[in-house]
Amino acid sequence: MINLTDEKMDKTTKKKKKTAECCGYPISIFFIVVNEFCERFSYYGMRAVLVLYFRYFLLWDDDLATSIYHAFVALCYLTPILGAIIADSWLGKFKTIIYLSIVYAIGQVTMAISTIHDITDANRDGTPDNFTFHIALSMLGLILIALGTGGIKPCVAAFGGDQFQEHQSRQLNTFFSVFYLCINAGSLLSTLITPVLRAQECGIHTQQQCYPLAFGVPAVLMVISLVVFIAGSGMYVKTDPEGNIMWSVCKCIGFAIKNRFRHRSSSYPKREHWMDWANEKYDKLLIAQIKMVLKVLFLYIPLPMFWTLFDQKGSRWTLQATTMSGDFGAFILQPDQMQTVNPILILTLVPIMDRLIFPLIQKCGLNFSPLKRMTVGMLFAAMAFVSAALVQIEIDKTLPNFPSSSESQLKVVNTYSTTLNVTISPNEHLLIESFGSSADYVTFDHQDITVSLNTNPVITKAFSLIKGGRQTLIIPSDPTVMYLKEDVKSKPREGKNAIRFVNGYTADLNITNLDSIEPSATTNYTLVNQGKRDFVLRHGEQWCEFSRKFGFGASYTFLIPSTVFSDDCESITEVEDMKPNSVHMALQIPQYFLITTGEVMFSVTGLQFSYSQAPKNMKSVLQAGWLCTNAVGNIIVLIVAELGKLPKQWAEYLLFASLLVAVSIIFSIMAYFYTYIDPAEIEAQVRKEQGLEPEEMEKETLEMEEKDEDQKNEQGVKQTKI
Ligand SMILES: NCCC(=O)N[C@@H](Cc1c[nH]cn1)C(=O)O
Fold first, then answer.
1. Whose CA is nearest to atom 14 of ligand 1?
2. How many CB atoms lie under 10 A from the CB of residue 395?
3. Phi and psi, residue 590, nearest 5°
4. pLDDT per residue over 317-332, tens digit each?
5. Quick one: which of 356, 479, 364 has its CA closest to 418?
6. How does the record say this protein sits in the membrane (predicted)?
């Protein structure tokens, strides 16, 4: 191949080809970048409210909701293989993106429709009557979405790359960074907006959380994404599908293995590479290409571990945030909003890295190669988990001591008129004053207990406690009817506070937003947000107002005395069942900073690397392989969450950190033996060896291209080479 300087090439290509350029970039990538922005808005927006939809619309429990969520994410990163096959062997990237985007948009619309409770709410009670219908429809929607988002993902990145000419390799790298920025701008906006949309109220018969809006807006964005992509139609460089590449690759590998086994006796000369055993039947070029791809795929084996840690931001770290305090003075941060720190940091870190850090490292004469960057990225992610573990240890110091699965915990609340001596068999003695409670929960390793009170006559009653539960024994003004009430045994969700009232007043009471409570009864918990909350207590004409300022994640039982109206709610006593969160959410910032730095080094670099190291006809295949590492990472999260129930959360964080360090060491060794290649060069070399002169080849392609109007720009490059 004749090497022309970039400058010369630039002049000639500009004259010959029609592809419009702006500042050295093909204009067509503008459409691709905008398309990706809308698509990621759609994807991350839908994902942001998905767990809540499962939990509070379909009424699944926490475990099922999170499992299905991670399974869905895993599916989204497995389908890229399908997309790559369709694109490379059948439709080409352009058509694949269009068709699968249509599937995707239909999926989003289906999903949005499945969230309209009015469809099956015939009795108009605000909950759907036919859950099967909603579940079936939403699962269908999710499958279509997974097919669409995963299917187009490897194509869009690779299609973007295809728009660049050989002399634009610098711009190509910038493109991948800008591409990543757009992904994050989309994900940032949508994770901020869709939860707000969800919190709106809407509905025909009854007003409900507005899931149709929260899923509908992403659906609209997906349609816009499709329209933008089609709008750029005339400008793209479209490469034709190269035939069923995957199938030929499989056949070729299969033959090599079979042939190797047939000739396993030592009398046959060894071959340099086991793929060389396909030489008899297959094209040298194909074999060379397969070798390149296999080398990269082999390198991918350790990578899922990074994603295993990375994707726990959305689950474990958000749960951790619910046990922290989000009071930043000027504003209050909700636990699930903490996740947006990641895209915000990406938007600042990618430019800083690209413009400052990486050039600086290069100036220092250090060779910070892509694989080195990825290794360092892994180490950063490991450090993030160490940081998370340290934060967890701080939190644990302040957390209540929850019962294990075999234990039961009990607290006693006394609303009787005098101090009581409470004996719980066999040997627990508690002295509890009137309108007071036992200092803390008493832990039992058995369930059957007998409680006796030192009243006259003595009152004795047997109870059976809940295994693994927390309960309160409520002693009302008539102690003979004392009863158990179940307590929260984990931090209330989303950093809210769980509160309830015991009615020690002599008649029914009405409390703002709650059902009326009978005398001696206890309300169920209600969740209240952080901040000052007011409650009006009312009985007939009498009322008083009770206000209290709440922090994050506490639980209280309020005891209402008989004198409540005569002293204007002053005498309500408060039993603290669970302390408010005291460790500040800002302590999570270091771990977010570390994981995001790791992400820039690992993920952005990996994206570029996967494109640059792939032979031309297998670019989307390698993109798919790259995304697959993400799917496997999520599957590992699923397995570990199911199996590895470590007793301490900080220990689990440290376990993941050390696993990733171990994996990164293995990866660095593998990377050490990897030699970077220029796929185009190798292909040219193989062609030469085959005796297929580059000119000859050029002629062939030229003839082909003359028939094809779309491919004019390629021609420009070719002619400069001749
Ligand atoms: N910073 C988080 C949002 C983001 O950059 N996502 C990228 C990269 C990615 C793949 N798997 C997890 N992350 C994308 O969706 O392609």
1. 183
2. 19
3. -55, -45
4. 887 888 899 888 888 8
5. 479
6. Multi-pass membrane protein
Residue 490 has phi, psi (to 5 degrees) of -150, 170
Closest CA to 369 of 609, 669, 597: 609
Which alpha helices (H) appear in 329-369, and where do they start and end? 341-352, 358-363
Residue 110 pLDDT more than 90? yes
Distance, in Å, from the CA atom of 520 to the CA atom of 503, rounded to the nearest integer, reads 5
In this prediction, residue 46 carries a pLDDT of: 93
Q: Which of 38, 187, 340, 595 to mutate to test the pocket of ligand 1 (most atoms within 8 A of CB)?
A: 187
Q: What is the DSSP string of 28-82?
A: HHHHHHHHHHHHHHHHHHHHHHHHHHHHHTS---HHHHHHHHHHHHHHHHHTHHH
What type of residue sits at position 639? I
> What is the C-alpha to C-alpha distance for residues 279 and 283, in angstroms, rounded to an integer?
7
Quick check: CB of 629 below 6 Å from ligand 1?
no
Atom index in ligand 1 nearest the CA of residue 630 equals 11
**In whole angstroms, what separates CA 296 from the centre of its chain?**
26
Amino acid of residue 446: H
Angstrom distance (rounded) from CA 251 to CA 258: 10
**For the segment 625-655, what is each residue's pLDDT rounded down to a tens digit?**
999 999 999 999 888 766 766 778 899 899 9
pLDDT at 692 over 70: no
Rounded Cα distance, 501 and 574, in Å: 9
Q: Is the pLDDT of residue 565 over 90?
A: yes
pLDDT at residue 19, as a whole number: 65
The reported pLDDT for the residue numbered 386 is 98
Q: What is the pLDDT of residues 276-290, one digit of tens each?
A: 888 888 888 888 888
Residue 598 amino acid letter: G
For residue 190, give the nearest of 47, 71, 341, 333 by alpha carbon.
Answer: 47
Cβ 42 under 6 angstroms from ligand 1: no
Which tokens go with 170?
């610098």
Is ligand 1 within 6 A of the CB of residue 342? Answer: yes
Q: pLDDT of 63-84, one tens digit each?
A: 788 788 889 999 999 999 999 8
Beta bridge partners, 187, equal: none
What stretch of H or E contains 510? strand 510-511
Q: Do 519 and 503 form a contact (C-beta atoms < 8 A)? A: yes
Residue 693 confidence (pLDDT) above 70: no
Is pLDDT above 70 for 717? no
187 lines ligand 1 (CB under 6 A): yes
The protein residue whose alpha carbon is closest to atom 5 in ligand 1 is 184
Assess contact for 388 and 591: CB atoms under 8 A.
yes
Q: Which atom of ligand 1 is nearest to the CA of 346?
A: 1
Using a 6 Å cutoff on CB, does residue 620 contact ligand 1?
no
Comparing 385-389, 463-467, 512-516, 584-588, the range with the smallest average pLDDT is: 512-516
pLDDT at 716: 36
Here the tokens at position 368 are 């910070």
Q: Give Rg (Cα) of the chain.
A: 32
Distance 160 CA to ligand 1 centre (A): 17
Ligand 1 in contact with 48 (CB < 6 A)?
A: no
User: How far apart, in Å, are the Cα atoms of 450 and each of 325, 460, 567?
Assistant: 39, 7, 37
Give the span between the Cα atoms of 359 and 357, in whole angstroms.
6
Between the CA of 393 and the centroid of ligand 1 the distance, in Å, is 29
